[in-house]
Every structure is written in C-alpha cells, then in structure tokens.
Write a structure and sequence with these properties.
Layout lengths: L3 H5 L7 E4 L13 E3 L4 H4 L12 E2 L15 E6 L14 E5 L3 H8 L4 E10 L8 E10 L18 E9 L4 E6 L4 H8 L6 E2 L5 E3 L12 E8 L8 E7 L2 E9 L8 E11 L12 E12 L2
Parallel strand pairs: 1-2
Antiparallel strand pairs: 1-16, 3-4, 4-16, 5-15, 6-12, 6-16, 7-8, 7-15, 8-9, 9-11, 10-11, 12-13, 13-14
C-alpha cells in the first residue's frame, strides 16, 4: 500500500516540491520538498470567491481511520439548493493557488511539466445528484489563464483548465478546457472508459475511470506536460490513490511560449448552473494535503 505522500508525488524525480502533508512523518524529510502550512499566504491563494468560505477545521474521522489521515483540512460547505457560485444559493469554495514563492518562481520562469494534488473526503451519506466540480490544474497567458471556464470560447488558445468532476453515483472525470482544435478533441475523446464533448465546450475525459467513496479520503495527483510550440506533444495524467487512471497524450496546451502552468484552480460546487444540479441537503467535504512539484 502506497503512503499518502508517495500518492501525492507519484513520479520518480522532480526539481522542487511542496506539501501541507503533516511534517511529523519522517517520509517528508527531503531536501526537495518544502513543508507548508495549510494557509492562504504560504500557499499563494488568490482570487478568492468572496461569497464562499474555506475555513481550516479538524475533519471528522474517516470510515477507515489511519494514522495518515489529515488532522487539518479546508471545509467546503454546500447548502441545500446550492449550485454554482453565480446562482442564488452558492456553495463549495473557490480560489486559485500556485504554491510557495519558490514554486511560483519556477512556474513563472516557464516550467514545462508539473504535478499538483490534494486529498478530498466527502461526508458520510453524501448525495451526488448529477455532478459537481473539483480542483484541478490551470494555466495560460497572464490574466487570460483565469478565464478558461464557464463555456468561454474567446481566447481559448491562451488558457487551459483541467478541473475534475464527480458525476452520478460518484463516477469521476477530468473536465478539460483546452485550446479548441481537432487534435485536442480527438485525443481527449479517445480516453477510456468513456469521454464526451459537452454543450458548454468543456470535454468530459475518462468518465468512470474511478469512483469516489463518501466517508474516506481520496488522494488525487494531476500532471500536465506542456507541448512544444508547433507540436502536439503535451500530456495530461491523473492518479487516484497512487494508481494512474487517465493518461492522455498528443495534446496542445498552448500556441505561445508565454503560456505557462500557473498552479491549481481550487474550486468545487454542485453543477452545472441549473436547479436540477443543486445539492438536495446541507453537505460538507474536506480538502487537505495540498501538494505540488516542478518536474522540469
């Protein structure tokens, strides 16, 4: 059984990493991993959705308690009837983060490959409804990097956003916004067990490649390898609890050298934007062990 730390860093080597995973564990004593508290400033949290909170709390025990379970976590609250942050009853949480300044500096210098991850636990008795968003990586050119969601079509060549989603019965997927071209469509739609293009221009990648279980911690690690300009050699990879469940190759994340990996779009909510996506009751989820690494 892999440790949570190895599941957060499911790669053989990297330049520099960071994690909020408990420093009490001896396995974190590595020169190439910065230990960071679960707090906004050291994690570079910015562009916070002001209608939502992300309080640091002691999460409840999981259904399968372990000494590696997080002791502190961000709590996301999804009130009954809540949907996306722009609806009458907002729910979840939302912000962006790049990690500590040493990581952000390497990203700004044009790091071509990185992995970011976290652990999430949905409360016992969680009701999935039709689906909802979960954090994933993002990037692009300057401020355009923040505008690659919500059905956006303009300047899609200047950004990418690969958040995750849960669907009915807890089935997982990557909800990908990449530059709109035939190369990306063909590569993403070929990912098993099932992928599809959505009417709001995001692509559901690998629907059902894994299934979330309420009341237990799930460890997520996501890797983006940027393409060389003029070539379709980018990669998108996802590990769940240390197992690679999605690996898409032949992608175009950018058409300009100025497009960089920025970090994580740390967002979650029920939806969709319509009431049939909304949470049927007050629900909570917890996010912890935020981590990342510059591979090259």
């Amino acid at each position: 059984m892999f440790s949570p730390l190895s599941q957060l860093f499911p790669i053989s080597s990297f330049q520099l990493g960071f994690t909020t995973f408990s420093p009490s564990h001896a396995s974190i004593a590595r020169l190439d991993v910065i230990s960071v508290p679960l707090a906004d400033l050291p994690l570079g949290v910015h562009k916070i959705t002001r209608s939502l909170t992300h309080e640091v709390v002691c999460p409840p025990p999981s259904l399968h308690p372990s000494s590696d379970d997080p002791q502190l976590a961000w709590e996301a609250r999804y009130p009954k009837g809540s949907c996306s942050p722009t609806t009458e009853i907002p729910g979840g949480l939302g912000f962006y983060l790049g990690g500590p300044k040493e990581i952000v500096s390497l990203l700004d210098q044009g790091a071509k490959e990185a992995v970011f991850g976290y652990r999430v636990m949905f409360e016992k008795g969680w009701e999935w409804v039709k689906g909802g968003k979960l954090p994933g990586m993002y990037g692009g050119i300057g401020d355009a990097a923040y505008r690659c969601t919500g059905g956006r079509q303009n300047d899609r060549c200047k950004c990418f956003d690969v958040r995750l989603m849960w669907r009915y019965d807890g089935k997982g997927e990557i909800y990908a916004y990449l530059p709109m071209n035939e190369t990306n469509s063909n590569a993403l739609l070929a990912v098993p067990p099932y992928s599809k293009a959505n009417p709001d221009y995001g692509v559901s990648v690998g629907i059902g490649a894994w299934t979330f279980e309420p009341g237990v911690w799930t460890t997520i690690a996501q890797r983006v390898k940027l393409n060389d300009i003029g070539r379709a050699d980018g990669e998108l990879q996802l590990w769940i609890n240390g197992e690679c469940v999605i690996h898409a190759k032949g992608l175009i994340f950018r058409e300009d050298e100025a497009s960089h990996i920025k970090g994580m779009h740390f967002q979650t909510f029920f939806g969709g934007h319509k009431s049939d996506w909304a949470s049927p009751k007050d629900q909570r989820a917890w996010f912890s062990d935020v981590s990342g690494a510059i591979i090259r």
